[in-house]
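Changelog-adjacent note: as of this version, every example in the card shows the full chain rather than a window. The one below runs 321 residues end to end.
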Amino acid sequence: MAISDAPVEEVIRCEQLTKQYRNGPLAVDRLDMSIKRGEVFGLLGPNGAGKTTTVGMLTTLVTPTGGKAYVAGIDICCQPALVKRVIGMVSQTNNLDRALTVWENLYYHGRFFGMSAKESREAADRLLVEFRLTERAHYDVSAISGGMAKRLQVARALLHQPSVLFLDEPTAGLDPQSRLALWEILGRLHTAGQTILLTTHYMEEADSMCDRVAIMDHGRFLAVDTPARLKDSVEADTIVTVSATGDLDILAELLKNGVEGAAKSQRYDTTIQLSVKSKTGILPKVVAVAEQGGFHITDLSVTRPSLETVFINLTGKELRD
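Full-length structure tokens:
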């Protein structure tokens, strides 16, 4: 077995991990990453940022073209079969076995991972209760809702008690109620000490679920920290988004210089984002400065700094662009 010298509490380590597709883009660019036991670590970024490719390499589905990575101390390139035995994976797509019932999807997963018939039965029954699927135990998986199917995928991934659970866009396509139900389950897993690597482009998901977040774009980490510290890095406590007629570059400069407490003003496509420090009654001031400059404001909104604000500051574009 190829075991790294990583500390016991370090469950994932990447060193200059790289994926260059043949005749294609550099999907992951010399990535360094360390995830501790019991941590929920989020990869946050737009589609095409390299999140899914990173997870693909760590779960041995994608072969790296450079660098090294270890999962639970196991070299992903030297011992891929062994890595598969210590991880659980929930992909974006529904990959449940449609020839089996809900319960059978769990039971045979355990048998595949070497559990005895008794152990697998007991684990399947326990997880059906924990994930609120008992009433659907003997349903065909094609007869359950998308939210139930996602819960079943998570239950199946946990059945063999993996060292780390990989969740690739777990709530994509779910309705709000199903998303909240899954968040509740993930919160319980976190409390129980399960290590989770989560990819998402939902900033509120990363903010609420993750101990640390890596903001990713073009295959690189732009920032890695707790959600709170990332938001504090904006150095503003109010974000005003402005839509107006006329030259927005000129208006952005007017607002930065004319609005008291403005820390930053930048144009993004058809809007301006104004970052302001600790000021009340900001909207009338924004309107007054704009009108004095001959601009007509068509829309205004006020928010607190978010992870999307951090992403915009780092990249100059919105998270979902």
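Structural remarks: Residues 39 and 195 are 5 Å apart (CA to CA).
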